[in-house]
Amino acid sequence: MPSHEFEQLQNLKQRFGYMFQTPLLGLDFYRGWLSDFISACEEIDAALGDDKRGFHFTQAKEKYGSARYYFSTNAVSPLRLSISDPNGLLELTTGLKDEHDVEKRIAIILHAAEKQSLHKCILCGATGKVRRFGGWLACACEVHGADQSGDALRSAVVRR
Ligand SMILES: [Zn+2]
Hints:
Layout: H1 4-15, H2 34-48, E1 56-63, E2 66-72, E3 79-85, E4 88-94, H3 101-117, E5 129-133, E6 136-140, H4 142-145, H5 151-154
Antiparallel strand pairs: 1-2, 3-4, 5-6
Helix pairs in contact: 2-3
The structure holds zinc ion.
């Protein structure tokens, strides 16, 4: 039986099909972060208005323990930079010029969703923090963080 999150994701893809036109599917969505992502898609749809400008996601993934959402429009494919310094990790979106005002708003919406994922368990969405699981980092709550092997976290991707 498909999970609740899978149904939510299918529903989202039906509502905003133009966002998910990526042929090679580099889109991974995580259970605990799905509701924030859905809210972000709703905000993006409103920001675009009637003209969708070729907006689509080019990649969605987990990186350094939090979500990353990459997009492209007919006008621009923004570049993403992750800069690590002693104060932490700085995420930048570059390549946006003055005339890309809608794309700038979209970048802000997606950065906000990414920031929320830093504090939410990748599996269940409860308050969590980024923890190390073997070789990788993931944001997990107390319950799911107890599985130090990371096995439980592997099922965090919404597949079905
Ligand atoms: Zn959890």
